[in-house]
Amino acid sequence: MKNHPATDKQWEAINENDKSYDNQFFYAVKTTKIFCKPSCKSRVPNYDNVSVFYHAEDALHGGYRPCKRCKSADYRLPGEEWVLHAKTYMEEKYSSYLTLNVIAAGCHGSPFHLHRVFKSITGITPLDYLHEIRMKKAIGYLQQTNKPIGEIAALIGIPNAAYFSVSFKKWRGETPREYRKKRGKGADR
User: Fold this and answer.
1) DSSP string, 31-57
2) CATH number assigned to the domain comprising residue 69
3) Rounded distance between C-alpha atoms, residue 139 and residue 142, angstroms
4) Catalytic residue from among 36, 40, 70, 107
5) Where does the record locate the signal sequence feature (predicted)?
6) Do strands 34-36 and 65-66 pair parallel, antiparallel, or not at all (unpaired)?
7) How many domains, in total, are found in the chain?
8) Are 23 and 2 in contact (CB under 8 A)?
9) What CATH number corresponds to the domain at position 95?
10) What distance in Å separates the CA atoms of residue 128 and residue 133, rounded to the nearest whole number?
11) 9-67 per-position pLDDT tens digit
């Protein structure tokens, strides 16, 4: 999983775009945060900015994204592992502005492919999953705090309180205020 400096042979393979070294290692460029196959036709980086990874997963976990030019973007985690990665990404970033494009970029794939694979494995879309995460977090805030509804909406990544209330009602069958009132957390401000 650790990155290494390029050996003389690896550096030569990078400089010569040697296809015979593809799948033996990937090189990552610190300044661009992109990793490539040795055969990549992009400009040769400065040696001091290059790290070598022996597995694409290690480069991904190291914070690098696949190169689109050499098609290292064709590398994808196997379906179930990729979906798990997408779920973790959404669970960590649910309070941020997230669209399918943002989630797909964060998970190193195309929005269409992520939507299709995620739904085929989980039965729901990535945005439906994100919605569930946000609504469950809202329940926690409604049960544990007296924060205003608008503030709770913002905390879970929905800046529009009215939209949050409508979404919550569709999901739970009652508004956030009604839910809170039933649970005895007092009137909303």
Assistant:
1) TTTEEE-TT--SPPPPGGGEEEESSHH
2) 3.40.10.10
3) 5
4) 36
5) none
6) parallel
7) 2
8) no
9) 1.10.10.60
10) 9
11) 999 999 999 989 888 899 999 999 888 999 998 888 999 999 999 888 788 888 888 88
Q: Which two tokens stand for residue 89?
A: 């990404």
This prediction has a pTM of 0.59
Distance CA 67, CA 74 (A): 9
- For the segment 133-150, what is each residue's pLDDT rounded down to a tens digit? 999 999 999 999 999 999
- Are 67 and 153 within one domain? no
Q: 58 with 140, same domain?
A: no
Evaluate if residue 72 carries a pLDDT over 90. no
Distance CA(152)–CA(150), nearest Å, equals 5
Position of tokens 């590398």? 75
Mark out the alpha helices in 5-157 (DSSP H runs). Answer: 8-15, 56-61, 79-93, 100-106, 111-122, 126-144, 149-155
d(CA 82, CA 88): 10
Q: Which residue has the tokens 């990665």?
A: 85
When mean pLDDT is compared across 2-6, 101-105, 149-153, the lowest value belongs to: 2-6
